[in-house]
Amino acid sequence: MKNNITDPIISCLIQEKLITDKQYRHAQKVKGKIVSSKRLLDILKDLNYVTDEQIKTALARHKHSLKIGDLLIEFGYLTNEKLEAALRIQKDSKGKRLGEILVEQNFITEDDFRDLLYIQFGFLHIEPDIQEIDKDLVSKASIKIYRHNSILPLYQQEGKPLIAFADPFNKKNIQGASEIFGSDFIIAVASHNAIFSSLNKLENESKTIPIKEDSVQAIVDSIIQSAILEEASDIHFEPFKDKFAVRFRQDGILVHYKDFPLEIRPMLTSRI
Length: 272
Fold this sequence. Notes:
Blueprint: H1 8-15, H2 21-33, H3 40-46, H4 52-61, H5 68-74, H6 80-92, H7 98-104, H8 110-121, E1 124-125, H9 135-138, H10 143-149, E2 151-157, E3 160-165, H11 171-181, E4 186-189, H12 192-205, H13 216-229, E5 234-239, E6 244-250, E7 253-260, H14 265-269
Parallel strand pairs: 1-4, 3-4
Antiparallel strand pairs: 2-3, 5-6, 6-7
């Protein structure tokens, strides 16, 4: 009769046919005879059942089904007690991500978190440079949506969008990026602060946007797409003395979207 395997990493290795259930049970027996608290993964490697490279490849294939807390424990960055404490804090907090809480509580460092993501998954760590960010890529959605998903579009790499995530294991954030860029994008990792700082700079730069006539239709398409993504009930176009503002009605409240030069008003309204 097979053991009920609760360890998600071991389950991943078995699904990938890198180890058998028999090998797993043998490693468990060996672990039970060892006085030190040696990790099961290390025992499997000592027994020559699996290599570091095979583990890395398997985890990369199953990254969206794994939890960051389980990985931090398995690779020795975190204890069960600290994870449970962080999960209790997360339950009482409003929308805070687990990785953010672990760093805030000094349970792990940001360097530990990045090391795990790079060494075990090959996720590239990025320090965003506002000058290198592709503004056309950013224009596919609003800054608010990027903040909501804690993501930052960077630029095209090998023909695919490179997107920085604060937490690449957050399924809602992955889904949010997929809705904007499709499923074929490259994941990078940046700190939560770096992502939000870059988004703030991009927002300030976009307060007034120079418009060419041949790009107006793209602007209209972008406004409509962003309104749909933000679940706006209607779109308001409001001329002022020195600008033309676009606002979305969300939950009965008008929320500012973007400002455009006043001269765009005739071109914009003629296409709606």
